[in-house]
């Protein structure tokens, strides 16, 4: 189905060669580049910040889907807008000002995404659900690539899809973590339409063919 979007996660790419890794992604049929920002506090791992995203922007025209795993992400809204982020997705668990932060993201001209961890109930999304362009349901605990998919999160995907349809809203539903050719179809069946994949895609030498295996699994 054409509304499905594949978002290769640059977290699994070669950090010393972002320009060529972005070119590799451009050669696939993927629509998004998923960019994980980690601060060593909200999650133990540290990745990189807005300056690196601004440099990446020069090498890619794809949609930059920026996933912030940082404490108080509202501090960085302007920085990521200026860096060229298209979608900025922030965790309900990362700020006591989630509503205001999402408003700020939209006011800065980006699409606003909200994300919940595996341990956070769907109810946390309800107060902001009318504001967002994308809801991300984590299917692993955030912080690292290469973890096993948590199937219990699929019930939350279905609950969010139901909530969206009941309210007549039209945001995208994204899944992130452990997505591969074995797990992607169940995510789509539950209601997801944007699929982040890191280690599964980048372990292959032929990236376009590996992206195609995800599309084939969706069509199966
Ligand atoms: C995890 C990140 C993911 C990560 C997914 O905290 O949010 O985007 O790159 O990696 P895989 O696909 O390997 O689980
Ligand atoms: Zn992510």
UniProtKB/TrEMBL annotation:
GO cellular component, one term: cytoplasm
Record note on cofactor: Binds 1 divalent metal cation per subunit.
UniProt keyword terms in alphabetical order: Carbohydrate metabolism, Cobalt, Isomerase, Manganese, Metal-binding, Zinc
Binding locations of substrate: 9, 67, 143-146, 176-178, 198-199
E.C. numbers: 5.1.3.1
Cofactors demanded by this protein: Fe(2+); Zn(2+); a divalent metal cation; Mn(2+)
Catalytic activity: D-ribulose 5-phosphate = D-xylulose 5-phosphate
Pathway: Carbohydrate degradation
Name of the top EC class for this enzyme: isomerase
GO molecular function, one term: metal ion binding
Name of the protein described by the UniProt record: Ribulose-phosphate 3-epimerase
Naturally occurring in which organism (per UniProt): Streptococcus hillyeri
Originating gene: rpe
């Amino acid at each position: 189905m054409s509304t499905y979007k594949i978002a290769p996660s640059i977290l699994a790419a070669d950090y010393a060669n972002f320009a060529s890794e972005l070119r590799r992604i451009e050669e696939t049929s993927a629509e998004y580049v998923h960019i994980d920002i980690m601060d060593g506090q909200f999650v133990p791992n540290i990745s990189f910040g807005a300056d690196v995203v601004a440099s990446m922007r020069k090498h890619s025209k794809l949609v930059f889907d920026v996933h912030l795993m940082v404490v108080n992400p509202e501090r960085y809204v302007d920085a990521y807008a200026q860096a060229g982020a298209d979608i900025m997705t922030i965790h309900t668990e990362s700020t006591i000002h989630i509503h205001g932060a999402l408003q700020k993201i939209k006011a800065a001209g980006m699409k606003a995404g909200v994300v919940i961890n595996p341990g956070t109930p769907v109810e946390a999304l309800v107060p902001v659900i009318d504001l967002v362009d994308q809801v991300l349901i984590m299917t692993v605990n955030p912080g690292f690539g290469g973890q096993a998919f948590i199937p219990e999160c699929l019930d939350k995907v279905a609950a969010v899809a139901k909530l969206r349809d009941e309210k007549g809203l039209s945001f995208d539903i994204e899944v992130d973590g452990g997505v591969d050719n074995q797990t992607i179809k169940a995510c789509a069946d539950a209601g997801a339409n944007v699929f982040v994949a890191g280690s599964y895609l980048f372990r292959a030498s032929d990236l376009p063919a590996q992206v195609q295996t995800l599309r084939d699994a969706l069509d199966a």
